[in-house]
Design a protein that fits this description.
Bound molecules: pyridoxal-5'-phosphate
CATH superfamily of the largest domain: Type I PLP-dependent aspartate aminotransferase-like (Major domain)
Helix content: 25-40%
CATH class of the largest domain: Alpha Beta
Order of helices and strands: HHHEHEHEHEHEEEEHEEHHEEEHHEH
Oligomer: single chain
Shape: globular
Number of strands: 14
Strand order of the largest sheet: 1-8-7-5-4-2-3
Radius of gyration: 21 Å
Low-confidence stretches: none
Number of helices: 13
CATH architecture of the largest domain: 3-Layer(aba) Sandwich
CATH topology of the largest domain: Aspartate Aminotransferase, domain 2
Distance between the termini: 23 Å
Structural class: alpha/beta
Length: 381
């Protein structure tokens, strides 16, 4: 961030996410897993890669997993295998309040992203508006399970069934989340995950996965992600090079053992915020639908004068974030889609109101209290 450095000592700062704390909490196990992988020199594929695919699939609820290079490729390759490579004329319905990886994947697969507005409380896709966006060119829906909360998947599936549309879930922020007790991928054609370091299940670099109940689909995505290979020198098709490294698989196998515990910790931290910020005027706490169980990838509050509060929090040594400051329909990258300011009033209102507070599994009660105190002071004066 540009501007004068905060007066807070570097050691007293509370970061938005603390990846070093995550490493230190299981350092021995992680180091041993990586050393073993180095000793085997299995950098591409190998034992950890195969084992992690099976373990992650079991954790997702049983089906099959294709491991790929990142979350954006997970979405792209799933869309291509489910819909076929598009020619730019088919439409895929999604939201503008998301990371650009969602729409890069849609365009990359040869489809046109069509945005719909969000529910201002959950900040997730408004299904009624998605219904209104369906036409004869609609081919798929990409619900984005943002901030750790799933989109109402029963309603998404009902909508998709009208025209036989595919449903590819963007679960990059929702490892372990549920809707009516069901995980990402339980209802949709595929759920796409990112293992970017800051995600709830994060690697030590880029990584991604597609979970699906359709084993043949997972096999085809794996093949496409690995040069269309049948075996070393036989290529069924021209694919891409998008593989999860052996070392990343070794790290992720260790971390998968703790993900449930970490998600529980995130929920507890969120409950502390709720308790400490209850009744505070001028701020809206995150809203979770009764059918949803959030894994709080982000703890997002809403308020007026967000930019002023954001700056005050930074000055107090609190690592806050904004997810997202500019919705995709207003990004220069998508000027060609023809959207303009005012097209999605709820998305645009939320963009100026959201502030993400620190949340990471190792966060202590006293740190949560400090963040809450800083927020109360920042809003009141
Ligand atoms: C992180 C993220 C992605 C993309 O994942 P990468 O691994 O960074 O390619 C896609 N969608 C959402 C909502 C994300 O948060």
């Amino acid at each position: 961030m540009i501007g004068r450095p905060s007066s807070v000592d570097e050691d007293d700062r509370i970061p938005l996410v603390d990846l070093r704390a995550s490493y230190h909490s299981h350092q021995k196990e992680l180091d041993a897993a990586v050393s073993a992988c180095l000793e085997r020199a299995s950098f591409i594929g190998g034992e950890d890669h195969t084992a992690f695919a099976g373990e992650f699939s079991d954790w997702c609820g049983g089906g099959a997993v294709a491991l790929v290079g990142n979350g954006t490729d997970a979405l792209t390759l799933a869309l291509i295998e489910v819909l076929g490579q598009g020619d730019g004329s088919g439409e895929v319905i999604t939201v503008s309040n998301t990371f650009i990886g969602t729409t890069e994947a849609i365009t990359g697969a040869g489809y046109r992203p069509v945005f719909v507005d969000i529910d201002p409380d959950t900040c997730l896709m408004n299904i009624d508006l998605a219904r209104a966006a369906v036409n004869e060119r609609s081919r798929a829906i990409v619900p984005v399970h943002l901030y750790g909360q799933m989109v109402p998947m029963d309603q998404v599936m009902d909508l998709a069934s009208i025209r036989g549309m595919a449903v590819i879930e963007d679960a990059a922020q929702a490892h372990g989340a549920t809707w009516q007790g069901k995980n990402p991928g339980a209802l949709g054609d595929a759920a796409c995950f990112s293992f970017y370091p800051g995600k709830n299940l994060g690697a030590w670099g880029d990584g991604g996965a597609v979970f699906t109940r359709d084993k043949d689909l997972a096999m085809r995505i794996s093949m496409r992600a690995n040069h269309g290979r049948l075996d070393k020198y036989h290529h069924a098709l021209e694919g891409v090079n998008s593989r999860l490294d052996g070392i990343q698989a070794a790290v992720l196998r260790v971390k998968l053992r703790y993900i449930d515990e970490w998600n529980r910790a995130r929920r507890e931290i969120s409950s502390w915020y709720k308790e400490l910020l209850a009744g505070l005027g001028g701020i809206q706490l995150p809203v979770t639908a009764t059918d949803a169980e959030s894994v709080y990838h982000l703890y997002v509050v809403q308020m007026e004068d967000r930019d002023i509060v954001c700056k005050k929090m930074h000055d107090k040594g609190i690592g806050v974030g904004i997810h997202y400051p500019i919705p995709l329909h207003l990004q220069p990258a998508y000027a060609g889609l023809g959207y303009r300011s005012g097209d999605f009033p709820q998305t645009e209102a939320v963009m100026s109101r959201v502030l993400s507070l620190p949340v990471f599994p190792e966060m202590r009660r006293d740190q949560v209290e400090r963040v809450a105190r800083a927020l109360i002071e920042s809003i009141e004066k």
